[in-house]
Design goal:
InterPro entries: CFP-6_PH (IPR019692). This is PH domain-containing protein. It comes from Nocardioides turkmenicus. By secondary structure, the protein is α+β, with helices and mostly antiparallel strands. The protein contains 4 helices and 7 strands; from the N terminus they run βαααββββββα. The strands form 2 sheets. It has a 4-stranded antiparallel β-sheet. Strands 5-6-7 form a 3-stranded antiparallel β-sheet.
């Protein structure tokens, strides 16, 4: 990076979806509270009818929900001097600036798409439209970084 360049943000910079993180963990907590209240409300006769297999199945479904919410909430986009890291769920993509051709955020889209020189297109779940104007600003910043660093 040239000395004294005017980058729009100090690198490294991370974008994470606030709305998805808040809602994801809020829904997990609400579901946990609801299930606990229902279980407490059962009579001892009904609780005695629930088999160990049913309890394990319920626990596995709950664990699956937590794993899915965790995948969504760990999504992020990290801009560094040497490139861009895009984490979508449990998949991580490390991109060099020269690989990125364009960043598109069509009106009504839930997140931007990154067009790559390989012809592929990847979504950037770390920037979500639900975050409002901050998402548009993040895309403008990324476009500037692509122009200046590639």
């Amino acid at each position: 990076m040239p000395a004294g360049s005017d980058l729009p943000v100090k690198l490294p910079h991370t974008w994470r979806p606030l709305g998805a993180r808040v809602m994801g963990w809020f829904l997990v907590a609400a579901l946990g509270i609801m299930c606990t209240m229902v279980w407490v409300g059962f009579t001892p006769e009904i609780k005695a009818q629930v088999t160990m297999f049913e309890r394990l199945t319920f626990g596995a479904v709950g664990l699956g929900i937590v794993v899915c919410v965790h995948a969504l909430t760990r999504s992020r986009v990290v801009a560094r001097e040497d490139g861009l890291t895009v984490v979508n769920g449990y998949k991580r993509r490390d991109l060099e600036w020269a690989e990125i051709l364009a960043i598109n955020f069509p009106r009504g889209a839930p997140w931007p798409n990154i067009d790559l020189s390989s012809g592929h297109n990847i979504s950037a779940l770390g920037i979500q439209a639900s975050d409002g104007l901050a998402s548009r600003k993040a895309v403008r910043t990324l476009r500037t970084l692509v122009e200046e660093l590639s």
